[in-house]
Structure formats: C-alpha cells, structure tokens
Design a protein that fits this description.
mainly alpha; 3 helices; 0% strand; 106 residues
Length: 106
C-alpha cells in the first residue's frame, strides 16, 4: 500500500507501460472538470442577471406607485377646478336635470 502511494505521488503511473489508459482517464477527468467550471460560470451569470432584473422590477414598481399617486392627485375635483379656473371655466351652480323621452307608440 505504501509503495503504490509513493508511485502515485512520484507520478510513475504516468510513465509506466499501461500509461495510455491512465492518460485517457486523466484527460476524461480534465474534460469533466472543464464542463463543471463552464456550468458554474453559466449559473453565476444567470444569478447575476436575476439580481439585476429583480432590482429593475423594484425600481419599476416604485415608479408605478409614484405615477399612480400623481394621477390620483390630478383627478381630485379641487385640482380640476383650479386648472379650469385658469382657462376661465367654472363649475356649474345649478345641478344637472334628467331628460326623459317618452314615446306615444308604447
């Protein structure tokens, strides 16, 4: 056991007679390691993109709430009256009347 461990540490398994089989296995492991690293980088990119999109969604929600608040304030009757007063329009003093149409054919 001790001798085989020293052979691995010294690298004798790379230069022995059946080294071709060992090299194929090492190349295969290296290829798997490269795939794992590429996959990890891809996952990290996706995590960063998700974080960016989450920040953008929060920003857009905040902007939506702000615009909605401004719209509600502009729709207030007092603001409309002030805006129309600048144009010379005033609210009616007399209430509206309902007009009913009756036909004789019924």
């Amino acid at each position: 056991m001790k001798k085989s461990f020293y052979n691995v540490v010294k690298g004798k398994f790379l230069v022995s007679d059946d080294a071709f089989r060992n090299w194929r296995f090492i190349i295969f492991l290296s290829f798997l390691a490269l795939i794992m690293i590429a996959s990890s980088h891809s996952a990290d990119k996706k995590v960063h993109r998700i974080a960016e999109l989450s920040d953008e969604v929060k920003e857009l929600k905040s902007e939506y709430v702000d615009v909605r608040m401004k719209l509600m304030q502009t729709k207030l009757e007092s603001r409309i009256i002030r805006a129309m007063a600048a144009r010379g329009l005033q609210p009616s003093v007399t209430p509206p009347q309902r007009i009913r149409i009756t036909s004789n054919n019924e």
